[in-house]
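queue> pop job 88
queue> type: inverse folding (structure -> sequence)
queue> payload:
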């Protein structure tokens, strides 16, 4: 594997072999009769959307999920031919690009359904869509209990074609508890009502990563894995149910080493003062790269296969760590922020705990000025994405 970038060494490497392994774990859990819609929104959870989508398409993913029209256009421009579902809502002004780029909108409320139907008729085009039902998330979607009030709108459609029906579980980390079962039952009632009215969309999907792993009754004809594709577990307990491989490593190199005396203040605000003579390593990464400021005086990095604490406030472009207890550190040494170095590992969940957030935000916060390099761990060159 070649070094990704010349110059600034703060990069993410994305192991496509691990990605394919995780995709195969999805396949093994759902069986041959269920399709996969791989969720690659938010730049594939920070992993580089186009490189990830190409690898998953090659692995057999039947379709992809994005959040916005622009994300879908990016995949089409990069050569992705599989169906792409725009999950987070669409707007009337986007109809032309939806049709031109062969993107499938998720329609979440009746007025948009009517407007898109009128505009599609006016333009003389047809468009497949998936209907989003709110079964208890309380976010977007037609309310499940109001199915009869919007069912009549489907009967008026000529230019729009109902291809899919879906909903979203409120509990992304687990399928335990009665609320998940209530949502599942509400979704099943909507599906039965549609079928009794003569509608039978072929693509029925509800299962997120947690439900892929632990709730087979929610698999229907399609599943929507996201987090598990990238090697993170919806909850720690699920590590005993499926084996996933982390896909992303975020790393940099020591920019400067400085020996400072006891009583030295490190970074803004004097939030850290050395209690001994210390060796401080400055790293070329900061909150402008998505390295959370809440990691200040809390987080750790890996250097020479040992942990070293972050000291002082993380700056926009730079971060300091105390390497006094790590022998042999030199300028230019590799530093792993997220991922493995030898047997030592910093997982996304651990970093999320330091930053008082979740692994999803850790991944998706990694900024665009951090290059992503995609490679296969069995060998081969890194490609920038």
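queue> result:
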């Amino acid at each position: 594997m070649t070094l990704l970038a010349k110059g600034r060494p703060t990069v993410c490497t994305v192991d496509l072999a691990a990605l394919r392994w995780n995709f195969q774990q999805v396949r093994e859990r759902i069986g041959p009769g269920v399709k996969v819609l791989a969720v690659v929104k938010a730049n594939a959870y920070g992993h580089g959307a186009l490189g990830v989508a190409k690898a998953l398409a090659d692995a057999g993913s039947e379709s992809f999920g994005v959040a916005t029209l622009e994300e879908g256009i990016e995949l089409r421009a990069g050569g992705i031919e599989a169906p792409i579902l725009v999950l987070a809502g669409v707007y009337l002004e986007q109809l032309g690009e939806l049709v031109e780029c062969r993107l499938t909108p998720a329609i979440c409320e009746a007025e948009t359904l009517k407007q898109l139907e009128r505009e599609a008729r006016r333009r003389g085009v047809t468009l497949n869509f998936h209907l989003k039902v709110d079964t208890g998330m309380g976010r977007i979607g037609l309310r499940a209990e109001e199915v009869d009030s919007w069912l009549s709108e489907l009967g008026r459609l000529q230019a729009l074609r109902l291809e899919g029906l879906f909903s979203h579980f409120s509990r992304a980390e687990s399928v335990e508890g009665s609320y998940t079962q209530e949502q599942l039952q509400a979704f099943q009632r909507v599906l039965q009502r549609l079928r009794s009215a003569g509608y039978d969309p072929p693509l029925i999907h509800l299962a997120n990563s947690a439900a892929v792993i632990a709730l087979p009754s929610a698999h229907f004809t399609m599943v929507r894995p996201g987090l598990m594709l990238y090697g993170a577990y919806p909850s720690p307990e699920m590590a005993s149910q499926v084996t996933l491989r982390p896909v992303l490593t975020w790393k940099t190199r020591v920019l400067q080493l400085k020996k400072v005396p006891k009583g030295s203040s490190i970074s803004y605000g004097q939030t850290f003062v050395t209690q001994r003579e210390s060796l401080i390593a400055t790293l070329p990464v900061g909150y402008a790269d998505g390295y959370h400021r809440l990691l200040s005086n809390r987080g750790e990095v890996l250097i020479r296969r040992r942990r070293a604490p972050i000291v002082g406030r993380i700056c926009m472009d730079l971060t300091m760590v105390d390497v006094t207890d790590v022998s042999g550190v030199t300028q230019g040494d590799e530093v792993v922020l997220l991922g493995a170095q030898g047997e030592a590992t910093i997982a996304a969940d651990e970093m999320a705990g330091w930053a008082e957030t979740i692994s999803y935000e850790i991944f998706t916060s990694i900024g665009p000025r951090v290059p992503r390099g995609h490679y296969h761990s069995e060998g081969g060159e890194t490609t920038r994405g």
